[in-house]
Design goal:
The chain has 281 residues and is α+β, with helices and mostly antiparallel strands. It folds into two domains: 30-198, D-amino Acid Aminotransferase, Chain A, domain 1, CATH 3.30.470; 202-277, Nucleic acid-binding proteins (OB fold (Dihydrolipoamide Acetyltransferase, E2P)). The chain has helices at residues 3-24, 74-77, 96-103, 110-113, 130-142, 160-172, 243-247; strands at 30-34, 44-49, 53-57, 62-64, 85-90, 117-122, 149-151, 155-157, 177-181, 190-198, 202-213, 222-228, 234-237, 255-260, 273-277. It has a five-stranded mixed β-sheet with strand order 1-10-9-2-8, with helices on one face.
Length: 281
């Protein structure tokens, strides 16, 4: 056996267990695309878009969508079923910072976790059409005595005006937006045309790569951040920052969430505005 082949075999013996472990622990979640205002069919099932942390229950533990374990108190998970669930850990409208601080803490605080609910909206391992999955999910959860485990109601919207009205209603109540699901769609992991998100403004993520100094009233503070999208395009964001954030801006290399109104022909976001530092899930 050649030396190169021996080295290759040794490397594979070292790496293979970690590769298998990584594959086994990838959460099989469907991910949403942005709704572009064009209905692909005659209707969508609609629910509120929760501004929390996407959460996969694998039957034994809670995981982020990136498969990182969530340190939840035992009382929070004791009454969850053995069947895997797809949902969102939520602290109410406008509570994103609250939920990330509580849920991503490595030492769970029992009192703080009482602010969190698990909003469950799908059965990720079921091969049934959406309507059948919802019927099964509702039956699974409706008799659960734990008030923090909640089935997310779905409403059928059969026209674009109905979708726009539902969005306005949610936004007026302080909600973030809507999730739209194609009737009879099958649950398939990865980015899907059958799961769409709709907000007054879209949101996206980018990596901070540089700062631009402020002028005038922002002298000696941050003026703007230069960021890079996943596709490599770079641009700057100068709005959406509080004075406190301008004095202590997002670290270089950190991921941020920004809102915008679509993209230009060159692929750059229109009217981009800083929202928050994206917490590592």
């Amino acid at each position: 056996m050649s030396q190169a082949l021996i080295i290759t075999c040794l490397v594979m013996c070292i790496l293979l267990p970690s590769i298998l472990y990584a594959k086994e622990h990838i959460t099989p979640l469907v991910l949403a695309k942005h709704f572009n205002g064009v209905m692909l069919g005659t209707a969508y099932w609609s629910s509120e878009k929760f501004d929390g942390i996407r959460c996969y229950w694998d039957g034994k533990q809670l995981l982020t969508r990136n498969a990182k374990p969530i340190k939840a108190p035992a009382w929070f998970t004791d009454q969850l079923p053995s069947q895997p669930l797809d949902g969102e850990l939520w602290a109410g409208r406008g509570g994103y910072q609250t939920v990330t601080k509580i849920v991503l803490d490595q030492i769970p605080d029992d009192i703080q976790w009482q602010k969190i609910s698990y909003q469950v909206f799908d059965l990720p391992l079921s091969t049934a059409p959406f309507e059948e999955r919802q019927k099964a999910l509702k039956t699974l959860l409706e008799n659960n005595p734990a008030s923090h485990i909640q089935w997310v109601k779905q409403t059928k919207l059969e026209s674009l005006p109905a979708i726009e009205k539902a969005l306005d209603n949610i936004v007026q109540q302080g909600g973030e937006g809507l999730m739209l699901r194609t009737p009879k769609s099958i649950y398939q992991s990865g980015r899907s045309d059958h799961l769409l998100k709709l907000k007054i403004r879209q949101d996206s993520e980018a990596r901070v790569i540089a700062y631009q100094a402020g002028r005038g009233k922002y002298e000696n503070m941050l003026g703007a951040v230069w960021v890079e999208l996943e596709n490599g395009k770079m641009f700057k964001i100068g709005t959406g920052f509080s004075d406190k954030e301008r004095q202590s801006p997002p670290p270089i290399g950190s991921e941020i969430t920004f809102s915008h109104q679509g993209f230009t022909e060159s692929g750059l976001p229109r009217f981009a505005s800083f929202e928050r530092i994206r917490m590592k899930e």
